[in-house]
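Comment thread on ticket #2218

A.B. wrote:
> Attaching the input chain for the structure job we discussed in standup.
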Amino acid sequence: MQVVVRDNNVDQALRALKKKLQREGVFREMKLRNYYEKPSEKKARQKAEAVRRARKLARKRAQREGGLPAPTPTARPGQPARPSASTLPRT
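C.D. wrote:
> Ran it. Output below, let me know if you need it in another format.
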């Protein structure tokens, strides 16, 4: 895995590397390998993950086909909510 450091900006390159590692699931893998997981627990975890993925896929498919309304965006903690067009002052 490679990350390009531009203009000696190591902090930005480090953020990009962390994002790539997160996307690849390296941190999750490290966390799982930290302790021994019994085969029965591993099987149960993998089955639960598969069910979660299937539900998410079905939900997205239903949204695309118009069966479900799209989720409304919510403000993240620490970030102000964006004002709607109706609350903005007219100039």
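A.B. wrote:
> Thanks. Noting for the ticket: The radius of gyration is 21 Å.
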